[in-house]
Amino acid sequence: LLMARTVYCVVLGAEAPGMDRVPHPGELGQRIYENVSAEGWKQWIERQTMIINENGLSTIDPASLEILEQHMLGFIFKEGEMGQTPEGFRPPGAKK
């Protein structure tokens, strides 16, 4: 049996089993694959669902996807302001 790939997960702050595949397109997806565990990604998906529901976002709307990516960077890598926004907070216009 193949050993599970282990990564130092930036979400959990610990070594944990990595994901089986790159979870997101492009360079960001590769960076997530290398730095986020399967459990860390699961936590992001739970947070993302909450953000989509609270803000009425659509995963087929490019503007919504951009907002979600900003939240993702904040939640996973603590980059930008979006990861730390209070629950229920909605940026004015919710667009860059």
Structural write-up:
This protein has 96 residues and is mainly alpha-helical. The chain is built from three helices and two strands. It has helices spanning 26-35, 38-55, 62-77; strands at residues 6-9, 14-17. The chain has a two-stranded antiparallel sheet. Helix 2 packs across helix 3 (62-77). It starts with 5 loop residues before the first strand and ends in a 19-residue tail after the last helix. The model is unreliable at 89-96 (pLDDT under 50).
Largest sheet: 2 strands, antiparallel
- Gyration radius, to the nearest Å? 14 Å
Can you count the helices?
Answer: 3
Average of the residue pLDDT scores: 87
Task: Report the order of strands and helices.
Answer: EEHHH
**Class of secondary structure makeup:** mainly alpha
Low-pLDDT sequence parts: 89-96
Secondary-structure blueprint of this entry?
Elements: E1 6-9, E2 14-17, H1 26-35, H2 38-55, H3 62-77
Antiparallel strand pairs: 1-2
Helix pairs in contact: 2-3
Features:
96 residues; mainly alpha; elongated
Give a brief rundown of this model:
This protein is mostly helical and 96 residues long. The protein is 46% helix and 8% strand. Helix 2 (38-55) crosses helix 3 (62-77).
